[in-house]
């Protein structure tokens, strides 16, 4: 992404898209009972509250009545149907990890099998987006958590902590290509959840080879433990390599969320918050998902940057849009064109 002399002026920036992640699949309801929904009515109300606070993208997981993360697609179908009525303008984004929470104490925290995740393309009603991981990768979500972060939560149990410390994201090349194919066939847009610049490079190759020829909505997921660290150096290098035609959201973990989101707002990028990413306002003081959204809206207001409504967010994400060829996709996204036979030197769009 290129920053011009006037790129930090809010009147030259897209309106802010705020993603809410209020379903906290890694937590147990008792970790934050005031903010972690269990019943279907509570799931729907959380979405309504997040939308009213200013979020226009909803990152979705579902919980069973026993408090465990649901792996049943029928529960997702039920929630999607109700959300289409309750928050019709929100972009509904299914978390491609589904529920990675361990079923029982001492078991692994793991994503569902390949074919089970492919079934997300068959959800009815269809979501607007499904998040997709690229390249199998360690996902140790506790590496950056401090003792203060997990104080009073289920993560203080050694067996559960170890389950999350050793979690792996399965995303082999053949699975990724098939998943992208099924999502496109179902009219569902992928949202790329990327851990490193190397994964961004793989996405670019998918575009160059014509495997994926649609809008590029990317989250930089800076949670450590196999993913990038939430440092300005890692952040700016990732931003530098994202093409100008992409939409980029910055995502972090725990008390890194607010400073990373604040920088995203100032730079014209997009944000994500909610109890899936962070429980805390400041050390020892919990913050609900709605409070986190309201905080970002206030910061955007102080900087003079507008917050996108549902229609504006859909336009920014290019929901429903696809292109026919790799050449067209490269041009739309702002990547340099592929090399033509016999062409030498650097390539560029005339």
TrEMBL record:
Signal sequence segment: none
This protein's record includes keyword Zinc: yes
UniProt keywords, alphabetically: Metal-binding, Transferase, Zinc
A GO MF label: metal ion binding
Coiled coil: none
Cofactor: Zn(2+)
Protein's recorded name: 3-keto-5-aminohexanoate cleavage protein
């Amino acid at each position: 992404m290129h920053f011009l002399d006037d790129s930090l002026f809010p009147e030259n920036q897209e309106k802010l898209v705020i993603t809410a992640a209020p379903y906290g699949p890694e937590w147990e309801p008792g970790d934050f009972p005031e903010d972690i929904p269990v019943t279907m009515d509570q799931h729907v109300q959380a979405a309504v509250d997040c939308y009213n606070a200013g979020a226009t993208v909803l990152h979705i997981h579902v919980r069973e009545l026993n408090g465990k993360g649901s792996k049943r697609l029928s529960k997702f179908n039920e929630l999607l149907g109700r959300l289409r009525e309750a928050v019709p303008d929100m972009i509904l984004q299914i978390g491609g990890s589904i529920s990675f929470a361990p079923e029982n104490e001492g078991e692994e925290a793991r994503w569902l099998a390949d074919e089970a995740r492919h079934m997300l393309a068959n959800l009815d009603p269809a979501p607007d987006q499904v998040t997709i991981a690229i390249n199998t990768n360690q996902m140790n979500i506790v590496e950056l958590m401090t003792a203060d972060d997990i104080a009073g939560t289920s993560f203080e149990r050694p067996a559960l902590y170890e389950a999350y410390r050793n979690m792996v994201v399965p995303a082999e090349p053949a699975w990724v290509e098939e998943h992208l194919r099924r999502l496109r066939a179902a009219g569902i847009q992928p949202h790329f959840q990327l851990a490193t610049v190397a994964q961004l490079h793989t996405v670019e190759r998918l575009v160059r080879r014509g495997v994926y020829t649609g809008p590029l909505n990317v989250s930089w997921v800076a949670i450590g433990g196999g993913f990038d660290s939430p440092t300005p150096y890692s952040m700016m290098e990732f931003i530098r390599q994202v093409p100008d035609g992409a939409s980029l959201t910055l995502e972090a973990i725990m008390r890194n969320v607010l400073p990373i989101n604040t920088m995203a707002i100032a730079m014209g990028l997009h944000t994500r918050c909610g109890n899936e990413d962070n429980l805390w306002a400041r050390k020892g003081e919990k913050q609900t998902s709605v409070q986190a959204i309201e905080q970002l809206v206030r910061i955007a207001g102080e900087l003079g940057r507008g917050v996108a409504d549902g229609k504006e967010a859909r336009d920014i994400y290019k929901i429903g849009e696809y292109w026919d060829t790799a050449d067209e996709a490269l041009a739309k996204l702002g990547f340099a064109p592929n090399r033509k036979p016999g062409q030498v030197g650097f390539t560029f769009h005339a």
